[in-house]
Design brief:
The strands form 2 sheets. The protein has a 5-stranded antiparallel β-sheet, with no helix packed on it. The protein has a 3-stranded antiparallel β-sheet with strand order 5-7-6. It contains 6 helices and 8 strands. It has helices at residues 34-45, 53-60, 67-81, 109-118, 125-150, 184-195; strands spanning 6-8, 12-15, 20-23, 28-31, 51-52, 90-93, 97-100, 104-106. The chain is of the alpha+beta class and 196 residues long.
Length: 196
């Protein structure tokens, strides 16, 4: 089966080697298991043609005897991924098989790398904005708590407005903290002792 990327109905970028179905319109990417991707590729390879349940069972489920239920579930899941609510993209022919209706555009080999880079699964921009807002609120909360803790009355590192700092220096303990103490009086008696 062809493993090169293709575009289905100008909406879905599908890369079988990565198991990737990228919905350009819904802006979401889905990775599907290899068996489902092989089923999708088989239907695409035979588009607009009935692919019988027997052929699908042989090709995808290796002739496993109880593959009918698995096939029904696989088709249902592919319809969900491909937004085929009306069952028009993958048509069921009762008791016979399935027909894929849709435009399939193969991607040129030289354009493959560009398409892969262009349609890498995207992270929603809203997630980034939400994370940024949460970080901002967290920072504001931390700053508020820090400010409240630092303004507690018993905190020795903070001088409360309107209060005077208590100095341990006895030289500055005068009634006017801006006035330096008179040191000449103290030195005078020492000078008198030296004269005697």
């Amino acid at each position: 089966m062809n493993q090169s990327p293709f575009i289905l109905n100008t909406r879905f970028y599908i890369d079988p080697s990565l198991g990737l179905v990228d919905d350009r319109e819904g802006q979401k990417s889905t990775r599907i298991e290899p068996r489902l991707m092989n089923l999708l590729c088989l239907l695409v390879a035979h588009k607009e043609t009935l692919v019988s349940r027997a052929v699908i069972t042989k090709e995808i489920w290796d002739d496993y005897g109880n593959a009918d239920e698995g096939l029904t579930q696989a088709i249902s899941y592919l319809r969900k991924v491909l937004a085929d609510d009306r069952k028009t993209l993958i048509e069921t022919v009762p008791k016979k098989g399935y027909i894929l209706h849709g435009a399939v555009a193969q991607i040129q080999q030289e354009a493959k790398r560009t398409e892969e880079l262009k349609y890498v699964p995207r992270v929603n921009r809203q997630k980034y904005l939400l994370i940024a807002a949460l970080v901002f609120v967290l920072l504001l909360t931390v700053m508020f708590i820090f400010k409240r803790v630092s303004q507690k009355p018993g905190n020795a590192d903070v001088i409360q407005p309107g209060s005077r700092p208590a100095f341990t220096d006895t030289a500055r303990s005068s009634s006017n903290p801006d006035q330096l103490p008179d040191t000449t009086k103290k030195a005078q008696p020492d000078a008198d002792k030296l004269k005697n």
